[in-house]
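ugh ok so i messed up the first submission bc i forgot one of the chains. this is the corrected input, ALL of the components this time, i swear. 944 residues overall. if the numbers dont match what u have on ur side tell me asap before i send this to the collaborators (the ones from the other lab, u know who)
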Amino acid sequence: MIQLQHVNFEYKGSAFGSIRDLSLSVRQGEVILLCGASGSGKTTILRLINGLIPHFYNGTLSGEVTVCGKVIAQTGLHELAGIVGTVFQNPRSQFFSVDTDGEIVFGPENIGLAPDEILRRKAQVVQEMDLQPLLQRSLFQLSGGEKQKIACASVAALFPEVILLDEPSSNLDWKAIGELRRIIGQWKAQGKTILISEHRLWYINALADRVLYLKDGAISQEWRGDDFFSLDPETFRRLQLRPATIARSFLNTQKEPVEAMPSTDPITLHDYYFCYEQTQHLFRRHLSPHDTKEPLALSIPSLTLPYGRVIGLIGHNGAGKSTFLRCICGLEKRCPGRITLGGQTIRGKHALSACYLVMQDVNHQLFTDSVLSEVLLSMDSPDPERAGEILTSLGLQDYAETHPMALSGGQKQRVAIASAIAANASILLFDEPTSGLDYIHMCAVASLLSALSAQGKTILVSTHDPELLTLCADEIVQLDHGQLAAQYPLDDTSLPRLKAFFEGSCS
Amino acid sequence: MDTTITLKIPHIHLDPRTKLFMVFVVSSIVLMTATTPLAWVLRIMITLVPLLLLFSEGRGISALCFGLLYTVALLLMKFFLSTQSTGVVMALLTGYCGIVVQFLPAMITAWYLIRTTQIGEFLSAMQKMHIPDGLAISLAVLMRFFPTIKEEYGGIRDAMKMRGIMLGGGHASKMIEYRLIPLLFSCVSIGDELSAAAITRGLGGNKKRSSATELKLTGIDLLLMALFAILAVAFIIAKYL
Amino acid sequence: MNNQTLAAKDFITVGLFTALLFVVEFACGMLGYLHPYVVASYVILIPLVGAIPMMLFYSKVEKFGMITIMSILLAIIMFVTGMGYLGAPLIILSGLIADLIAKSGNYKSFRKTVLSYGIFSLWVCANYFPVIVSAKAYREDLLSGGFSAEYCDALFRAINTKTILILVILCFVFGCIGAFLGKAVVKKHFEKAGIV
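and heres the new structure output, hopefully the right one now
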């Protein structure tokens, strides 16, 4: 079905993700999992198969890639459209349409199928994937999981024989990953040939026929699917992969001991109410739970957080995690919430200087042309010496003059953290800091969060990664439908509770 | 709110060609100011139709906002302001109201076109009008990108607030730089990913693009086209004859 | 990849950058309602600020047609937002000439890019076309449209057949200056970040 023969590829101007003398042959109906660190060439392999290399991305290519007997280098991308389908990582950027219906039929329309055939395919895909509730909606209003589902449907409507998925779970919560798993299972049952590049491995268990471990652009190890998923945790850690099953993720991670902060007054949050619907009042007034008929997107009358700890914020997509973080740091003006911190009460706009949110899309937070000036920008009076210290403490000293956008995702995150420290924020908020990160980088984030809390920062991190929580969280706050569902310290006795939450949400 | 409104007003979905024709008529009429009472009536009518259509497409809230803005500007101009208004505030207010009354009808119609037209529909309408594919794709991307830019800019504004650099530290050039640079970075990378996703699904191939729903001009389409043609002619007569 | 016909990717790039340029124009345009002299200063403001996305756009242009299509899209936008169709031929013509100039430098020569963007910037002047071509009628229109007499007088002092030549020249000159500025920004940010 797919043949790669002695393929070498290097992107123009960058060695990152290049492929060295790689040969691979995939049979029809096989499901293959590609794993390995970022930059090991997983995505490059997919791009070689769907023709984006050499038709879209420039670089030097040697060797031959054939799919269904077609030589990719000599086949136009539009000819491949009905043969190879690709689901990309970022649900936000892979839409051409603005509405769900249009997106599903986008591919079939492009290849010029007859209207009846298009509608038949659409009906079939909608029925198979259970998409009825998503039809006739604006894509800009869907959650990440729903968008990714539409992306899958749009690819499936082309009836491709080969389906490629490039880290499809990066921006999804567990429930959505569960659905993704079901969709992949369905494709497998239909006999499609599937290649998945992923960091999160557990959901592909029992789906993958073959697992390829990539290192430096070559296949360094290969297993049968069953063998791979029954490898012992030690091997996974050695290969620097994320755990293969949920259960094991709680076994093979151990929190690093962090020197406890001397006990300080806890931080209390009061009156965090928020409602998305703009209420039609002439004068803006603050929300309270009593005066609105709309269900509140967020309703937390009071919450006490330990000072100088890492607090994990969990809950399904739409449970109000991101909204809560935005309200805490003062970005939602209509939220009446206030923070009591060391005897001081902070509310409204003033929260902006006490808290700092490291956004999920960290690209929005980088403004200047060098890492150093980025840090200096956050200081009231620029102090290059202190900025240097901060960069050193985050391992960024070598990049002081580099443009922040030239850095990797994890490094950009650290630049954002550096500016938060420079701004003297005492509460640091993180929105999904590890989505799309590989195992090593996730561990790096975990130890960074621990280190920050040891310096007296209070950290609130919203996440879908239980691995991250077990690595660094001291306390868990669980939200459900905008309300506080549970709060407990994370230790050996409460681990099963956390596990139950994640397992419950993926079934 | 939206749902209750859609229940009351029948859902009217027009052919993109009708909408384009409406945009053409309205954009032409806004170039000419109304000078007689009849012309004013006609001008208000061409504003009301797209507003009602927005309602019927379940976009009651935006229709209400537009309608309110237009009405307020109209009333202010009619009763409180005159060309003799002096003073900075009055002059500014006159200017703003003038702009709103003058150009809002075109904005509303363009908004109506953009927000209620599916991209696939739009592309096939362009094809039926024999517009070259490339130009149609560019136009479709142009339409699609405004909400994306809005979304990205929202994120950048939030980040600026947190850094306290909304005013760029007092430098106009920094104010522009801090907004524009992250926006360009985001949009360029979204554009690349969008291109990759669209091309792997066959966009821009040499096959003629088809359409899931065959576009057809219905009675209501013809009715509205006729109405707008008559309004346009009537306006010109009212103004110049 | 290397053939000279435009592909879907190029059309998407054009659409994207036109959207960005329009957003810049719109943001600058908002300032114009403050005072008519600001309207005249569009010829300085828009070529300068617009140069930032445009120089990034030029760095992505490799084939003939992209700049021309952008000018067609701009003409359409100007018409739809009520700026009239009188300027459309000027916008498209300047786009076409700009494209030809850039092509003569194989889309690589920076000197040609400066010249090309200077010409392209003339689209900004299209906004003044109604003021010039039908000055008298336009004035009446504005007055009956509710603009104050003061505003109109100032507007026509700033923009008339005599000054339009100056405005066109200003537009071109600031377009060229903008190109250097935009190029500097592209160097400072996008080249340094390895995007271009």
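quick check: DSSP finds 19 helices and 20 strands in chain A. that seems consistent at least. Residues 279-285 of chain A have pLDDT under 50 and may be disordered.
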